[in-house]
Design brief:
alpha/beta, 14 helices, 9 strands, 17% strand, binds alpha-D-ribofuranose, binds calcium ion
Length: 319
């Protein structure tokens, strides 16, 4: 059984990714760690509880993480996901408590207790991961794989023309994570805006009628759907975190990925938060002879959007 840790800033698209992982029978979510991002860390923790309860399967331990980025003031996105990050539906707060252990300590401990087995799906700013890597690098080298929703991938950013939100919030942390010597796969924002990638209006309406879990997945994204209408001109839904989760849970949805050297821009200038994805044909050069700019991440270039949607709806649908 695969063991995964979800590190999340639980906005509404994170919620769908959490539903997917908890309802996927081939993986065990051994922990959920929360971080500031879409909303503050306390709200992200409440939203993680709400998502866990809505998944209606089992309750993994939840650990509270960083209240703010490594160096910069927190940047949030209530305008995208709602004041509560979950569509402002007035959802009840589940009777759940976070563990007393800090998320950074929990990440290090769980990885040490399961050497070579833990896969981390990071769907928010990676402040917790960077802190863990800086605090106990030898332990964190035991991580099996990191899947990160972050960067514009091979495309543009969504906060600035070059910076995607999860990196823009904490580019210093992203640089630590990208340069850390463990296998990692980056799913950029470009993936969720590929042709056919959005959940279109007709699909939204169909999913609302596919049982309570699927209805929750749509309802909690009501603010994001409104935001998409303003930005893209029609009622539809972009799901960056679920695409990243799909790449981890369902590798058959990944059609093309490349070994890349990723450079994270952390200077205080208009490029802050850009991830320069250097996709050269490393197989055409001897990687071992490369002094600098060696591959440090696989970056996904194409996913099967139809298969993603099919598997997503099967995963969330209840009679
Ligand atoms: O840019 C998209 C990412 O930023 C997603 O993870 C979304 O939840 C926000 O955190
Ligand atoms: Ca997120």
């Amino acid at each position: 059984m695969r063991k995964i840790i979800i590190d999340t800033d639980t906005g509404s698209d994170d919620a769908v990714a959490i539903l997917m992982a908890l309802r996927e029978p081939t993986v065990e979510v051994v922990a959920v760690t929360t971080v500031c991002g879409n909303v503050n860390m306390e709200q992200a923790t409440i939203n993680a509880f709400r998502s866990i309860e809505a998944a209606d399967t089992y309750v993994p331990p939840v650990y509270k993480g960083a209240y703010r980025p490594l160096m910069r003031d927190a940047v949030t996105a209530e305008n995208v996901h709602g004041q509560d990050g979950m569509g402002d539906l007035g959802l009840p707060i589940p009777d759940m408590q976070a563990e007393k252990e800090h998320a950074v300590e929990a990440l290090i401990r769980i990885v040490k207790e399961n050497p070579g087995e833990i896969e981390i799906v990071a769907i928010g700013p990676v402040t917790n991961l960077a802190l863990a890597m800086m605090k106990d690098p030898e332990a964190m080298k035991l991580v099996k794989h990191i899947y990160s929703m972050g960067s514009g991938g091979y495309g543009m950013g969504n906060v600035t023309s070059v910076a995607e939100f999860n990196v823009f919030v904490d580019a210093e942390a992203y640089k630590v994570m990208v340069d850390f010597p463990v296998p990692k796969t980056i799913i950029g924002y470009d993936i969720c805006s590929l042709p056919g990638a959005f959940i279109e209006e007709n699909e939204i309406d169909e999913m609302k009628n596919e049982g309570p879990v699927s209805q929750f997945a749509i309802d909690c994204n009501s603010t994001l759907i409104d935001y998409c209408k303003r930005v893209w001109g029609s009622r539809k839904l972009d799901l960056p975190d679920p695409y990243a989760m799909a790449a981890a849970l369902w590798p058959e949805t990944v059609l093309e990925e490349h070994e890349c050297h990723c450079f994270v821009c952390t200077a205080d200038d208009p490029a802050y938060g850009q991830v320069v994805v250097d996709y050269r044909k490393f197989d055409a050069v001897n990687k071992d002879k490369l002094e600098k700019r060696r591959p440090n991440a696989n970056v996904i270039k194409l996913m099967d959007t139809a298969l993603f949607k099919k598997k997503l709806r099967e995963c969330l649908k209840t009679e």
